[in-house]
Amino acid sequence: MKHLLSLFFVLTLSLPVFGQYQLGDKTTDFKLKNIDGKMVSLKNYKDAKGFILVFTCNHCPYSQAYEQRIIALDKKYAILGYPVIAINPNDPKLQPEDSFEKMKERATNYQYTFPYLVDASHNVTRTYGATRTPHVFVLQKEGTQFIVKYIGAIDDNTEKPEAVETPYVERAVNALLSGSAIAIPLTKAIGCTIKWRKS
Amino acid sequence: MSRCFVMALRWLILFTFTFGVVKAQNVDVWAKDGLAARLNTQNDTVYVFNFWATWCKPCLEELPEFKAAQQHWSGKTVRFIYLSLDFMSKRESILLPYVAKNMNWAKVIQLDAGNPNHWIPWVDSTWSGAIPATLIWSAKGRAFYEESLRAPQINSIVQSLMP
């Protein structure tokens, strides 16, 4: 039994490393704790056509710069079937500002309209292959599956929202809503490195 | 009384002027073209470009490692440049005071290169954009790390790229 457990442990640790999602990949559902204490899974959203999944956190200035834009994305796209789900991937031991309590505080202060989940084990973060905050994955429902359709940045100007030329995520979701191809499905952006738990 | 005031004013002007000039000299700004030109430079020098920011905790933690490596190669054809990704709006309030206080040993550049989706791949095709990240190259080859480095690592990479 002990061996089985350790084998399971090794497998769950090592598998996600190979499972970093690429465009077009089917995702497996997750179950993560929200700041209200309830568990959230993709399958809870019966009417969703897809999701705007954002790996983000409290402390990172790049996440903070995008916070209002993330809230705006949810306000605009949740009613169209693409709600935002935010996931904090950081180990609070390394970054105390990203603790569960601080997450609750921030979400309340800034009136988040979406779940703000904890991925303390980093399992979901590793599976997706998120490397920084903020890091966005747009998923689209096909049958019972959710497929990765966009990976990358929210837009092309972190510091100056008014100077954005291409709002990548909006363009991607608009394309999905209209059934057309996403012109730029993969982008790169500067962000805070994920604070991986030191084992 | 009025002489006192004039003296004080003179000092104030001199003080402001001096510090303003020193700050401007210390941290140049590279736009997109400047970055591109530097990344394409190939000569007898080994270049170490460390991408960092004052808000990036692991970046600040690895700076002493870079300082040690830089000292190790002092006098050799190795050039260490620290490219800050601090927001331009935080230049005066955060970056310049930080550099003045902690990094008088370093050649710091502030990047203002526009859309990162354009220039990140110039640095390395595998870079996701997370920092710290370090590019080390010479005419002999190149190495890229999207992780924190230690001085011995930096030293052996530099050694392997020495002409």
Descriptors for this entry?
heterodimer; A: 199 residues; alpha+beta; Glutaredoxin; two-stranded antiparallel sheet; 5 helices; B: Glutaredoxin; six-stranded mixed sheet; 6 helices; globular
Radius of gyration of chain A: 16 Å
> What string, H for helix and E for strand, traces the elements of chain B in order?
HEHEHEHEHEEEH
Overall shape of chain B: it is: globular
Unreliable stretches of chain A: 7-18
Q: Give the strand order, joined by hyphens, for the main sheet of chain B.
A: 1-4-3-2-6-7
Considering the protein shown, what is the CATH homologous superfamily of chain A? Glutaredoxin
The count of β-strands of chain B is: 7
Helix content of chain B: 40-55%
Please write the CATH class name of chain A: Alpha Beta
Shape of chain A: globular
For the termini of chain B, the CA-CA separation is 66 Å
How would a textbook summarize the main sheet of chain B?
Answer: 6 strands, mixed
Provide the β-strand percentage band of chain B: 15-25%
Low-confidence stretches of chain B: 16-25
Number of domains of chain A: 1
Structural notes for this entry:
The complex is a heterodimer of chains A (199) and B (163). Chain A is of the alpha+beta class. Chain A has a single domain (2-193), classed as 3-Layer(aba) Sandwich (Glutaredoxin). Chain A has five helices and ten strands. Chain A has helices at residues 2-18, 61-77, 100-109, 123-128, 168-178, and strands at residues 26-27, 32-34, 39-40, 50-55, 84-88, 116-118, 132-133, 135-142, 145-152, 191-193. In chain A, helix 2 (61-77) links the parallel strand 4 (50-55) and strand 5 (84-88). The longest helix of chain A has 17 residues, at 2-18. The radius of gyration of chain A is 16 Å and the shape is globular. Chain A starts with a helix and ends in a 6-residue tail after the last strand. Mean pLDDT of chain A is 92; it is low at 7-18. A six-stranded mixed sheet of chain B has the order 1-4-3-2-6-7. In chain B, helix 3 (57-72) crosses helix 6 (151-161). Chain B is α/β, with parallel strands linked by helices and 163 residues long. The radius of gyration of chain B is 18 Å and the shape is globular. Chain B is built from six helices and seven strands, in the order αβαβαβαβαβββα. Chain B has a single domain (27-161), classed as Glutaredoxin. Classes of the chains: A alpha+beta (199), B alpha/beta (163). At the A-B interface, strand 10 of A face helix 5 and strand 5 of B. Strand 10 (191-193) of chain A pairs parallel with strand 5 of chain B.
